[in-house]
């Protein structure tokens, strides 16, 4: 199949951009009306049923976890976090929800939950906390959001993000660095958090209250909530960029700290003699604590990527990899950075190392595909995107990139079939326009 000059220009732009985005959050279904809040017992307007909360959670949580470089490959740590989390769910207001807990490889400071209780903590926040009581407060807070149905409430009010996350247009006016900036910021970290609910201050206060209630029932020292608030306030002053995502979705205030301190002393004063289980916490995060210098360098590098300081970012990631050559997040970030520096062959090297180290996590496969496209290796790119789809189905951008790869392989009919599948999910945007124009040019649509 012959390509026009315009086609070749389009493909060149494609290799410089990252098209990862998360599927659109499931829209509110037909069950419109009032529901009873499981915490307060009050009637509230709710357009999202419990079944839909579970569906959104199951469909979207895996994409967010992948955007955060997957669950840490430390089974003991994930088991410990699960144990602490589960100690609170059974005494919550919604014990029947399908809760799950894990640490993810992201280095920014945050924790989050999806509507049905798929909860994640980042490596960044685990390294900031000092004891198990603070961990219980963190997880209890997220469990509180689930129990008060805050995500469903925000969707009902139109505040739950349902837009494409980290999507990039193919506008022709970008400079090379601006194109690369969209690429390197496109997967993981701060941008991916746009899918999650942006809680109000009232939501946060209620989740704090519920979190302290649940952790106290689990015999955790309620001062853990006060300690957690203090950690976040101090960290926000020392390194504000690392908390950007957390404070965006979990607005912080001095009032929250003061309230937690007062509530612990008055409502739960008799439980302040409980141990904070610091030694147990430190034992369980011992491997992670050994990685703190690596996490610090990755935080520096991600901040530099955001500022388009790509050479500085490369140096930060190189320092991290010298200390931890098998760190999956470091390899993925270095791959992104090399793409930003227009070095797709080197980017492919790091992406393939990441694939080898964590074969069941999807980002390495996606970056391998982008790198192969940039090198003109369409068949290899197609295989990488197919593998990504097997690992993490439901991402329309993967179909689009498969279509582009098939175009490069001059397999017009197969590309048309893939583009047609893509257009069933995505109707607007530059990618959709390109797919539709190909179907028109090839005579599949009029």
From TrEMBL:
Q: Which co-factors does it depend on? A: Zn(2+)
Q: Peptidase M48 domain: from which residue to which, for each copy?
A: 77-263
- State the GO CC annotations: membrane
Question: GO: which molecular function terms?
Answer: metal ion binding; metalloendopeptidase activity
Gene designation per UniProt? yfgC_1
Keywords of this protein's UniProt record, alphabetized?
A: Hydrolase, Metal-binding, Metalloprotease, Protease, Zinc
State the protein's name.
TPR repeat-containing protein YfgC
Q: Which residues form a coiled coil?
A: none
